[in-house]
Write a structure and sequence with these properties.
Strand content: 35-45%
Largest sheet: 5 strands, mixed
Radius of gyration: 12 Å
Order of helices and strands: EEEHEHE
Structural class: alpha/beta
Number of helices: 2
């Protein structure tokens, strides 16, 4: 199992990927909030496993800034969870 944490912001998202053993697979990296950034994230995720059910994504619900990346993750079949800080 792999866990992806995404800190959502207006222009960029800070991400980190851990294994279920707590091993840091990809240390903190930043992607742009656009298709190029999303492609970068998907390349990293697809390098981990072909079975996207093995990947859990947590991201915050920040106004509307999370909607683009959430839509991309869902469109690619990733099991995603929106975490509302409230």
């Amino acid at each position: 199992m792999f866990y992806v944490g995404i800190d959502v912001a207006k222009d960029k998202h800070d991400c980190c990927i851990l294994s279920s053993d707590g091993e840091l697979i990809y240390p903190l990296f930043t992607i742009s909030n656009n298709s190029l950034g999303f492609e970068d994230l998907m390349e990293k995720l697809s390098s981990l496993t072909d079975d996207y059910s093995e990947i859990k994504v947590g991201l915050e619900s920040t106004g509307h800034y999370h909607l683009n990346i959430l839509s991309m993750l869902l469109d690619n079949g990733l099991a995603s969870y929106v975490i509302n800080p409230l």
